[in-house]
Design a protein that fits this description.
Strand content: 5-15%
Bound molecules: ligand GBH
Shape: globular
CATH class: Alpha Beta
Keywords: Glycosidase, Hydrolase, Signal
GO molecular function, one term: galactosylceramidase activity
InterPro entries: GH, Glyco_hydro_1
Organism: Neodiprion lecontei (Redheaded pine sawfly)
Low-confidence stretches: 4-23, 500-505
Structural class: alpha/beta
Helix content: 40-55%
Protein name: Cytosolic beta-glucosidase
Radius of gyration: 23 Å
Mean pLDDT: 94
CATH topology: TIM Barrel
Largest sheet: 8 strands, parallel, barrel
CATH architecture: Alpha-Beta Barrel
CATH superfamily: Glycosidases
Strand order of the largest sheet: 1-2-3-4-5-7-12-13
């Protein structure tokens, strides 16, 4: 009898939890919510040397250091989207996406790297792509820079040379002028954290310069903020009135969670060192205090005469502060943090003073940095709501990596669980998320992982001269979600090979 009572109680509690959850949150998208998909020039275009296109840092890296790419391959052809843009636009339309986020290749538009020569062919490609999208009723969302700056600019220090700020603004101005009648949502720069760290503090991204102790990384970030701020001001001065668009930056945000409940302060530090590094200057006028204090402390410990974190003048603060029309975030995964115990012995190894790890219960993906933890997404969205006065948020990337299977049930589960978290954050917690983009419409060149990690909802056969595209299970799932504007049940796989993720067991 006692057992029966316990069982009934458990079932009742489960039902109540379920009902109260679903009462509050129906898994429909709010009206007006924008659903899109995303890509980046170097990852999909190919046509690396057609017409007068200049060489960029990814052409240079993959051609000269193939040893740094897992399969030694490159983006010379990639998805061939330079030639197949109409097919891409038609697929995006058929599936029912509202917008397509693509990026412009700087050296395709400016072959010399500078604004003295504008490639007519290069610009025409982006005009054609934009027109194809508009004709299909798809909103173009344009990333001005997604990691592929001209090699000639890198030869002068790239993002560590402050002069890049004006070179970038001149490039952005050409795009505003050429595409701004159709493009109303601009992203200045994609994920500073990723290329500043991977490119100037390591070798996982171009230009693969390992500059010690994050000196290059911080300088890169400093110039990124200046370039972003000045580009925003340029849009204000010359284009906003006539074009009426929005300009923002996109940050790569992992959810940094406390390893256990005594490490809340450490999770906060990790947040400020990643999100806050870029967002605090843009929303609150300067680098986060904890970052300034910690980098100064560790710099001193290392014998530097001044902090490795550069400082902004009042003039720059005024330019950068308040330059996001919306908050763009790319989210994939979570990390756990706890203090570096070495510091108790007076040994300072990391600027943030933290050990970063993952929970062993989180399912692995094909990418070594990426474990599945849906609840981290909701945590992050609420954190942004609280930290930056509930800004308009656009999730400009979210997606899952495997090795390319067509029956990608794990990808569908990932989308279901992550989107559910997002809808709860919107509907229950009032987070102001207005748009969401699937990364990615196609399998593509995954940077240092080459073609070994696949994020597409569409399979691309890179070994085939035609780069044939084939729908994955996740593509048909997305088509249904888009037509119903509601999350759809995760299809069950009868194949014996399916691996169950923890939350599906
Ligand atoms: C995004 O970055 C990119 O914008 C996109 O181009 C890319 O294809 C997509 O995600 C999938 O990766 O190897 O430990 O140094 C995602 C954020 C930031 C995740 C850099 C990997 C390197 C971690 N990425 N990070 S590590």
């Amino acid at each position: 009898m006692a057992r029966f009572v316990i069982a009934v109680t458990i079932i009742t509690c489960a039902l109540i939890t379920k009902i109260s959850c679903c009462d509050v949150v129906k898994l429909t998208f709010p009206s007006g919510f924008s659903l899109g998909t995303a890509s980046a020039s170097y990852q999909v275009e190919g046509a690396w040397n057609v017409s007068d296109k200049g060489e960029n840092v990814w052409d240079y890296l993959t051609h000269n250091r193939p040893d740094l790419i897992t399969d030694g391959r490159n983006g010379d052809v990639a998805c061939d989207s330079y030639y197949k843009y109409q097919e891409d636009a038609d697929l995006i339309k058929t599936l029912g996406f509202d917008f397509y986020r693509f990026s412009v290749s700087w050296s395709r538009v400016l072959p010399t790297g500078f604004a003295n020569v504008i490639s007519e062919d290069g610009l025409q490609y982006y005009k054609n792509l934009t027109a194809a999208l508009v004709a299909n009723g798809i909103e173009p969302v344009v990333t001005i820079y997604h990691w592929d700056h001209p090699q000639v600019i890198e030869e002068m220090g790239g993002w560590t040379n402050e002069l890049i700020v004006d070179w970038f603004v001149a490039y952005a101005e050409i795009l505003f002028e050429a595409l701004g009648d159709s493009v109303k949502r601009w992203i200045t720069i994609n994920e500073p954290d990723a290329f500043c760290e991977g490119g100037y503090d390591g070798v996982s991204k171009a230009p693969a310069k390992e500059i010690p102790n994050s000196i290059g990384k911080y300088l890169c970030g400093h110039n990124v903020l200046k370039a972003h701020g000045k580009t925003f001001r340029l849009y204000d001065e010359k284009f906003r009135e006539t074009q009426g668009g929005e300009v923002g930056i996109v940050l790569p945000l992992m959810a940094y969670l406390p390893y256990n409940s005594s490490y809340e302060a450490e999770a906060e530090t990790a947040f400020q060192f990643t999100c806050g590094w870029m967002a605090h200057p843009i929303y609150h006028g300067d680098y986060p205090d904890i970052m300034k204090t910690r980098v100064a402390l560790v710099s001193e410990y290392q014998g530097y005469p001044r902090s490795r974190l550069p400082e902004f003048s009042d003039e720059w603060i005024a330019i950068i502060n308040g330059t996001n029309d919306y908050f763009g975030i790319n989210h994939y995964t979570s990390k756990l943090v706890y203090p570096d115990s070495g510091e108790e012995q007076g040994i300072y190894t990391y600027d943030h003073g933290l050990i970063v790890t993952v929970d062993s219960s989180w399912a692995a993906t094909a990418s070594n940095w990426f474990y599945v933890n849906p609840s981290g997404f909701g945590y992050l969205l609420r954190k942004i709501r609280d930290e930056y006065n509930n800004p308009s948020v656009w999730v400009t990337e979210n997606g899952y990596s495997d090795t390319g299977e067509l029956d990608d049930y794990n990808r569908v589960s990932y989308y279901y669980e992550y989107l559910r978290e997002m809808l709860i954050a919107i509907k229950r917690d009032g987070c102001n998320v207005e748009g969401y983009a699937v990364w990615s419409i196609l399998d593509n060149f995954e940077w240092q992982a080459g073609y070994t990690e696949r994020f597409g909802i569409t399979h691309v056969e890179f070994d085939d001269a035609d780069t044939n595209r084939t729908a994955k299970i996740s593509q048909s799932w997305w088509a249904k979600v888009l037509s119903k504007r509601k999350l759809q049940a995760v299809p069950t796989n009868t194949a014996a090979t399916r691996t169950l993720l923890p939350w599906q067991k």
